[in-house]
Amino acid sequence: MTDRPNASPLRVLVLMGGPDAEREVSLMSGREVAAALRDSNRFEVHEEVIATVTAEELRGHGADVVFPVLHGHWGEGGPLQEELERLGLPYVGSRPRAARLAMDKLATKLHASASDVPTPRSRELRRNEACDLEPPLVVKPVDDGSSVDLRICRSTEEVERARRELEPRRPRLMAESYVKGRELTVGIVGTAALPVIEIIPAVEYYDYQAKYIRDDTRYVVDPPLPSGVAERLTALSMRMFERLGCRDVARVDFMLEERPGGPECWFLEINTMPGFTTHSLVPMAARHRGMPMSALCAFLVERALERRPVAMTGVAGADRRRQAT
């Protein structure tokens, strides 16, 4: 970004909170992003905790760019992005269509299959209909993250128990064939993939507690992998990122299964606004590449600013519009 010694700093509005199940994670992420942007000494940073918000409400902030650090169906899955599009204000992250696709795990897996990206078999669990996949299965919401309400079911009875528990509060559930193996993830920033990270939880699987609360989860950046696996993970991640039309930042999750014919990389999901907490994986991988949190967040803001329209009617004052061109 060009230095502007005689101009007021560009205003960044960091949004956090939201109505989704991952609200507390969003609050942690948002505070870290706001602090990192302040540390960069390049922006005037404002932060707001929201429930929901409309374009009209956002218009009053006079922001040059929005960094929506929200996780979950509303904040990450399209509705908030649609409000930002109505405003015509640059923002960090994917546009509504890509956000909706990525949040819908079943829709994402259809795109994976069409793109020759291996992904475990899955079914939507419709009420009063039996599931034709054999256990062990992972039962989880179609459109949520952070392993919220995820259950590993090793028998038909456990599947039915999970459904009875989750169906009253989850309108859409899915079952996915369980893959036993190493849990790996690839972050993407801009148009480049970051180093692979292996996640080694101290508990059975990488649940909400293991992600954000516990301190005994191990993370290995650039782990030792069989020949060609890191390159394949990177290629599959970029393929899904581009296939869905994502932009700016994402995290792509895999299981690596050891098989007699060689290891298989199973795509699980892609997150279009991954966590930015002290435990989060995209900032961790970026640091490994020599990009500290302040530089990472500033880079993402600058990418959004590059999409700034020439006229910013109704967003900021005329003086700010002249300065921004």
Describe it for me?
- This protein is of the alpha+beta class and 325 residues long.
- The chain has three domains: 116 residues, Rossmann fold; 111 residues, ATP-grasp fold, B domain (D-amino Acid Aminotransferase, Chain A, domain 1, 2-Layer Sandwich); 56 residues, Dna Ligase, domain 1 (2-Layer Sandwich).
- Helices cover 35% and strands 23% of the residues.
- The protein has twelve helices and twelve strands.
- Strands 10-9-8-11-12 form a five-stranded antiparallel sheet. Strands 4-7-5-6 form a four-stranded antiparallel sheet, with helices on one face.
- The longest helix is centred in the N-terminal third of the chain and has 17 residues.
- The termini are close together.
Shape: globular
- CATH fold title of the largest domain: Rossmann fold
How much helix, percentage-wise, in residues? 25-40%
Question: What is the rounded distance between the termini?
Answer: 12 Å
Number of domains: 3
In terms of DSSP E residues, the strand content is 15-25%
Q: Could you name the CATH class of the largest domain?
A: Alpha Beta
